[in-house]
Design brief:
InterPro entries: NAD(P)-bd_dom_sf, Sc_DH/Rdtase_CS, SDR_fam. This is SDR family oxidoreductase. The structure is a single chain. This protein is of the alpha/beta class. The chain has a single domain, classed as NAD(P)-binding Rossmann-like Domain (Rossmann fold), CATH 3.40.50. The protein contains 8 helices and 7 strands. Helix 2 links the parallel strand 2 and strand 3. The protein is globular. The protein starts with 10 loop residues before the first strand and ends in a 7-residue tail after the last strand.
């Protein structure tokens, strides 16, 4: 069967590109024909991530901090200078922050999580949207989380930040109503990743994290998700196959939020 979800020639900007989900998404977008602008604050990790792309991929790497407005404007400008447009924007950079109860959370750490996860998403949309609105087309996909849909112990600040991402997504979709620009978000569940390992370890300080069978018992699919499965939803939302989809929060969680 012919793959209908093609992105041939389109330009996709991916932040948090050096992370496991960012890397998997870049790989899939490139396989489907997209030209890439890979953004991350870790230069060496970014170079490593780009090395794993298909040999035919066209990719520009930009080292930038998503919390710095000048640097955000810089990666948008670099994308336009290199490729002339931005067709898809995967606004993906994020951190989990400390794994602590609210009573022990420092204000500095609280602000850092919101700065990356909320301000970074806001700034990305603020600077990419004018490009897309001018051309009257484009797709923005923000990374939220099932933590933005439900509470979970010891990650209150992360959860608050992801609730905010969903709110930003829905509001931006309304502001783009009547244009060719769509705004959605993905809400990954328990994905096999460094972030999940950090959260699990933080919930069991000084002890081994719970065995995997105890974790997956809470997931109807009875397994952890893979970064490639999040990437598949991002690629769909970036494509014309999602032309009637805006303001949505797509869960990629093996049924966790339905349980």
């Amino acid at each position: 069967m012919t793959d209908r979800i093609r992105l041939d020639g389109r330009v996709a900007v991916v932040t948090g590109a050096a992370g496991v989900i960012g890397t998997a998404t870049m790989r899939l977008l490139a396989e489907r024909g997209a030209r890439l602008v890979a953004v991350d604050r870790r230069e060496q990790d970014l170079k490593t991530a780009v090395k794993d792309l298909p040999a035919s991929a066209q990719a520009l790497t930009v080292t930038a901090d998503v919390t710095d407005e000048d640097e955000v404007a810089g990666y948008v400008r670099a994308a336009i200078e290199k490729f002339g447009t931005i067709d898809a924007f995967y606004n993906n950079a994020g951190i989990e922050g400390d794994i602590k109860p609210i009573t022990e959370y420092s204000l500095e750490s609280f602000r850092r999580v919101l700065d990356v996860n909320v301000v970074g998403v806001f700034l990305g949309m603020k600077h990419v949207l004018p490009v897309m609105l001018k051309q009257n087309k484009g797709s923005i996909i923000n990374t939220a989380s099932i933590a933005g849909l439900m509470g979970s112990p010891l990650i209150a600040v992360y959860s608050a930040s992801k609730h905010a991402v969903i709110g930003l997504t829905k509001t931006a979709s309304w502001e783009c109503a009547g244009t060719g620009v769509r705004v959605n978000c993905v809400c990954p569940g328990l994905i096999d990743s460094r972030m999940l390992s950090t959260i699990l370890q933080g919930r069991s300080p000084g002890n081994a994290p719970p065995p995997s069978d105890k974790i997956v018992d809470r997931i109807p699919a009875r397994r952890l998700g893979q970064a490639s499965e999040v990437a598949s939803i991002v690629a769909f939302l970036a494509s014309d196959e999602a032309s009637y989809v805006s303001g949505s929060a797509y869960t990629v969680d093996g049924g966790r939020t339905a349980a």
